[in-house]
Amino acid sequence: MAGAGIFAEIYDENTNVYKYYSDGAWNISSSGKSVPIINPTTRKTQYKVQACTQEEVNKVMESSKVAQKLWAKTPLWKRAEMLHKAAAILKEHKAPIAECLVKEIAKPAKDAVTEVVRSGDLVSYCGEEGVRILGEGKFLTSDSFPGNERSKYCLVSKVPLGVVLAIPPFNYPVNLAVSKIAPALIAGNSLVLKPPTQGAVAALHMVHCFHLAGFPKGLISCITGKGSEIGDFLTMHPGVNCISFTGGDTGIAISKKAGMVPLQMELGGKDACIVLEDADLDLVAANIIKGGFSYSGQRCTAVKVVLVMDSVADALVEKVNAKVSKLTVGPPEDNCDITPVVSESSANFIEGLVMDAKQKGATFCQEYKRDGNLIWPLLLDNVKPEMRIAWEEPFGPVLPVIRINTVEQGIHHCNASNFGLQGCVFTRDINKAILIGDAMETGTVQINSAPARGPDHFPFQGLKDSGIGSQGVTNSILMMTKIKSTVINLPSPSYTMG
């Protein structure tokens, strides 16, 4: 049960508020204030977390800096060993963490458990991959460049950046947190986590698993609080040496304020699904349902717009509608396919897009239905470019279909977006798939499958407003290190076996 058993330490029974984590201990903020976490299903306060102060942020940064210096001296094999231990504890205690995900972000129960298990696997994989790639360096000789004799040897290695600030989003507050934590730690950095408000309690439980694994005090911190009070203070703090952020438009503001700090950012998408005449429409329909409606469409890599050739549009829409009618709608505890979206403001935003599409003549394949934060799945056919839903990211179970007459028209719509995270192409012609994929301005193109972030060791990156840098286990580890060169100057040219 959340906040009980081995997790009792993270909860203050006197105030019914979860503690924050710093310097190896669970603490109560000196502010005396808390931040409520609203259950999306009941729309009532489910949990409360500490509203940390700027002074507490300063203390966390100082202890993180000290801990990192010692951690960088810890043998690589030992760092990996501790990550494996944390992963095992995380997976062992998946049930109470999943419970938090159900109540905080209305994630279906089975998907909540899957997220925790997947997160443990990611941590373990990161430990293994870190040993391999960080254990290797380069040896260069000066005579490989014209005009030089072999009088210099260069040893190139990877060293940690320092303090990494990790800011994950609400929709995967555990998985997208560990995707930042594990690479940072294996690379020798310390880690300060600022979890999203919705998802903060699940993140605190996850951090306790790292605490139980025995990581040095001060190495990992978890600061909760209002973004308006500590958000900019954290991201602009001089003690931060790297920022890894996943979320929305806030990331653009962070990137403008961060200065010379290395950034890793994934900021959402409007992932296009281009469907050609020769596509397997049953396969397309299944992937549209999976890609567009899983977790109620609250995924950066969800299918956000279907661009289908007009000659097969009627048949595809009919197949998708048949599958939409079978989606279950209700509370996450019942493992329903469609559960409430994360907040009332999100539901209001989605409704605004739907009403705009209705006013401008879109065809409603289902009746629009909403009850509080719960929005029934809706397919909008005959969507036109002048409709907001054609371009904006709803982050909900509403999917627009735009009928196209040429492949070029579909590519143009995809590339006209300010987003460029992922896209997908459905066709039986691999040559067409490759050519279209190459023309799409997205970080990843999926051929005959819906967009997806995983597996977690695959490179994952966005173009334009979808992000900066690349993620995936290997890329994240490399991004959270810097190159250190040591040049040995010889008294005379050296030629072995000469």
Sheet with most strands: 7 strands, mixed
Write down the overall geometry.
Answer: globular
* CATH architecture type of the largest domain: 3-Layer(aba) Sandwich
Low-confidence stretches: none
Q: What is the oligomeric state here?
A: single chain
Mean pLDDT: 97
Tell me the β content.
Answer: 15-25%
As laid out across the biggest beta sheet, the strand order is 16-19-20-15-14-22-23
User: Can you tell me the CATH class of the largest domain?
Assistant: Alpha Beta
Helix content: 25-40%
Structural class: alpha/beta
The CATH topology annotation of the largest domain reads as Aldehyde Dehydrogenase, Chain A, domain 1
Give a count of the beta strands, DSSP E runs of length 2 or more.
Answer: 28
Report, as a whole number of angstroms, the end-to-end distance. 70 Å
Q: Assign the CATH superfamily of the largest domain.
A: Aldehyde Dehydrogenase, Chain A, domain 1
Can you characterise this structure?
- The N and C termini lie far apart (70 Å).
- The chain is an alpha/beta fold and 498 residues long.
- Helix 5 crosses helix 14.
- The model has no long low-confidence stretch (mean pLDDT 97).
- It contains 14 helices and 28 strands.
- The protein is globular.
- The longest helix has 26 residues.
- The protein folds into two domains: 263 residues, Aldehyde Dehydrogenase, Chain A, domain 1, CATH 3.40.605; 176 residues, Aldehyde Dehydrogenase, Chain A, domain 2, CATH 3.40.309.10.
- Strand 10, helix 6 and strand 11 form a beta-alpha-beta unit.
- It has a seven-stranded mixed β-sheet with strand order 16-19-20-15-14-22-23, with helices on both faces. A six-stranded mixed β-sheet has the order 11-10-9-12-13-26.
